[in-house]
Amino acid sequence: MLAHEDDLLRLTRRFPYSYVETRYHKISSRVISLLNGELLGVYRDEEAGYSVRYLNGPLYFVASRDPDDLRPTTEKHEGWEPGLWDGEPVSGSYSVEEKQKLDSQNLEEKISSLRDISREVLSQDIRSKINNLILTYSESVEEKELVINGSSLISGRVPRVLISFNLVMTGNGRTITAWFELGQSGGLESLNELRVREHLIEKVKSLDHLLQSGRSVSPGRKDVILSSVLSGIMAHESVGHPFEADRVLGREFAQAGTSYMAELGLKRIGSEMVNVADDPTVPKSTGFFLIDDEGVRARRKLLIKNGEPNEFLHDRFTAPRFNYVSNGSARASGFDREPLVRMSNTFFLPGEMSFQELLEDVKEGIFFKSYMEWNIDDMRLGQRYTGLEAYHVKSGEIGEPVLFPILEGTTNELLSSVDAVDDSLQFFPGTCGKGDPDQGIPVWLGGPDMRLRNVPVKVI
Amino acid sequence: MEEFIKFLKERVESYAVLKNEVVSTVVKIVDSKVEAVQRIKETSYNVMVRKGRRFLVSKVYTPEQLREGLGIMDKLPESRIVPKVHELSGERRSVKEDDGILRFMSDTSSVEDFLNSRYQVHGVLSASRFKRELVTSAGFHGNESRTWFQGYMRVRNGQYSGQWAFSSPKYDPEKVKITLNKAEEYASYTERIDLGDGYYDVVLSPMVMANLMMSVSYMASGYSIFTGNSIFANRKPGDMVGSEKFTLMDRPRGEELNSWDFDDEGFPTRDKAIISNGVYETPLLNLEIAEIMGKESTGNAGWIYPRPWTLEVKEGEVSEEGLLSGNVVLLTNNWYTRFQNRADGQFSTVARDAVIVFKGGKPVGTTSRVRIADKLNNIISNVEELSKERYSIAWWDAPLPGVYPYTLIKNVHLSKA
Prior knowledge:
- The complex is a heterodimer.
- By secondary structure, chain A is α+β, with helices and mostly antiparallel strands.
- Chain A has 9 helices and 24 strands.
- Helices cover 18% and strands 40% of the residues of chain A.
- Chain B has 9 helices and 18 strands.
- Chains A and B meet through strand 2, strand 3, helix 2, strand 5 and strand 7 of A and strand 1, strand 2, strand 3, strand 5 and strand 6 of B.
- Chain A: This is Putative Zn-dependent protease-like protein.
């Protein structure tokens, strides 16, 4: 029995169409923000309400906090959707455990912990100056209940913890403005598991080293090693997005854009070493779910297999256009947003080599550990990464930091240059945007360290 | 609202309750057909309560949801910055609603009339009614209501495309037609030519200006300046930061979308130049950031974070065509503006749709996969000329409404993937 089952079934009866989704969706969040160890603010947010989506020519979507507001509309349009995959929706529930409940500490205790972390970071013995450190803790619980076609009952509950920090540092006549984020699903145990304190201290020391000792880099073609931070954003942006079937079909053409899979029809995207998956079932992930918002069981999708396209992300509406079935990729960010084809946790699969082995074979190159800017064209082809923490690699050894190298190239050019990936796999949280009204949805981005041969490196 | 006020009056001395009610109809168009019709009603109560230098901000539905927070407020540490309530009482009421927009919200059957094109049309038409009610502990009670009509269209001509957008406080079919015509015009340029990395004289369309000026205006927020995440952090009012031809206004007292009479602290909004003829005039301020900076509020609250309302770049003296008379690269649209360094303004943004290369005033082809990779300071300093014609723009990747001319900028660094 769902807590809002009566409302959802009543809504279903009010919409006499062959396919009807009704959903109750609530997201409660609390945010604590500190500036240089002093409390900046405490924010609490709750968004909850009902929605109905049904197919009647076009797709119709209505949403409100009050279910009595929701009525079918009478207007007629010739719709773009030719139909849908009508596989039986499943019933079930999923949730992520809070090993340590989010409410097991009161607000004071949480603020005190964050203040301790801030103060420890600010007291590090470094040569550069930390102008500002904004540390933001965010906890949220997403709860949803769905009834599909009046028969399938689904519930989901995912708590999440996110930590972000914005650093402004100056030293040696240079200024850096940097932003990082850590996060996972779960309870307060996440703060220890994410090693927030250690991560922040390491980052401040690393940026200090960069400011004090960073050397300029010469442009040209070089071997490059990308850390999991960069392989993660590449997996999401250069592979995940263009493999969304609705984008391939043109449904996002005027918003988030198109796909090289639609425009160029590439048969090979990368080297044999390139394997990319999207998997909502990864434990502790921010993109975790087991049943999607159309009542389809979630599973791992291998988007690129040995460098070749293997599978798109589908919902019920895109699948039949490819003579396929939905692979459970429909998700909405809140009660007031329609479900769309979305990524969950997207990552390059690791290999068997160690990081040391990855390095050993590089005579002259650059290790990109983190980036400060990334963007891509709307076909998801031409992309640019500006390194923040980046290091010279010579004869298999990581050397001194280098200042702001830029990796700029096309997806197929860069992925075809991958000749090795190591055996690590790390994830980072992100918020993926899509749709209109825009909906940001929690995802994980990840991968191993990845070696690219002879790729173009520019400078600012 | 009354329940909130009764609840808060009994418990705290300083508070503000901002009720937002937004009802929207959003029609999504794909391949010249209606793909989805969305009708969304969102109601929220944003509540700021303050005791001394302690405060909480909550977005809730009932006063009861505030009880837990109020119970622990006294135990919180004091905050570095504390939202304030303007000491102004009385009632304000302002209703600017357009019947045409309200009709479109309930009946979208006119959409197909706008889709007659030689190309496949994609895009969104949306109509919204915003109701905003603010009650403060100072005795201020404001009610405002507005309607918005906005949209964007992107058309596909084989591998080429064009996109344009509009925003309007009234239902205006003519603006939709102009939007489609502009998108069609830009999609009709079909010769491909290559453009290498380098410095070029660039004309930014109002679409691109909307995207970039949004970044300039958020950097003008006193909060961005206070935290060092701004090109204005090391500048002071009176400094020359741009070309003498460049004026950027925040204009909440005009007729454009997102024009309001009072801010979230009950402070009257006012039109102001952020940059006037190249001179940095003022950051955007609320009461608390103004106090830190020793200035007056500019009526741009946002609790803690001041923000722009609706922007305007002053027009120039030449025509659109006149700006294209030399050797220039016209960027008709862009997206994905990202900053490498907010203090020095280093950024890049990706061109999208038609990037048209003009030589001797004649279009010689379009190029692809280029991005501006430069400093924001250079962009506003190298403004050479602006068009007389201006367009009201708000769209998916430039949601802050504004009015912009075409703008010729010298020596802009372009980079190609």
